[in-house]
Amino acid sequence: MSVDLEMLSTELDGDPGMSAGGYLDLRTGEVFDEGITDPAMVGQDAAVDVEEQPDRWLLFARTGSRDGWRDMAAFAQRQHDAALRERAIDRTGAFGRFRDLVHRESLAEQWYDFSADRQLGRAREFLAGGPVRGAHCAASSPSASTPAPTSSAP
Q: Contact at 8 Å (CB) between 1 and 28?
């Protein structure tokens, strides 16, 4: 089975306000938003009854912004500019301010690569801890073959 790490990482790190999580199809490796179980969202014929085949579906919850904030803090700490490090991770409005700073400082490409690598690492960790050992993880990112850096940030 091949699991699309990019799709899994996107779903895991998604906004819990939009969806609480989703399902990994342990037979095919496909990743689905939780809406796949709701006939009102996907149609009566397309809705999946996960209780009908509980061994096939692995439920996962979205993590929200906590991991994204930790990624920003870890990236900021790697920068040489002390002012950038301090301004970038102030909690109030941190995401928008951080995005503006990395673009203004011409660090956007480095940030997006760093962030994607960390998200893929979290998806790998999720798979390593679940009942999908031995699954082949597919990702189109060239950095997907390297482990994501870890951080001791809060």
A: yes
CA–CA separation, 8 vs 137, rounded Å? 10
DSSP letter assigned to residue 79: -
Q: Which pLDDT score is estimated for 2?
A: 86
C-alpha distances (whole Å) from 85 to each of 55, 60, 68, 77, 130 are 46, 33, 16, 6, 36
Q: Residue 61's beta-bridge partner residues?
A: 21
pLDDT in tens, 13-35: 888 878 888 999 999 999 999 98
Global confidence as pTM: 0.73
Q: How far is CA 135 from CA 2, 27, 56, 71, 121, in A?
A: 6, 10, 14, 26, 15
**What number of other Cβ atoms are within 10 A of residue 47's Cβ?**
15
Residue 129 burial (10 A CB sphere; 0-12, 13-18, 19+): exposed
Structure tokens at 7: 């799709």
- Side-chain-side CA neighbours of 112 within 13 Å: the count stands at 7
C-alpha span between 122 and 136 (Å, rounded): 15
Strands 31-33 and 57-61, sheet pairing: unpaired
Task: Give the tens place of pLDDT for each residue, 103-136.
Answer: 988 999 999 999 999 999 999 999 888 655 444 4
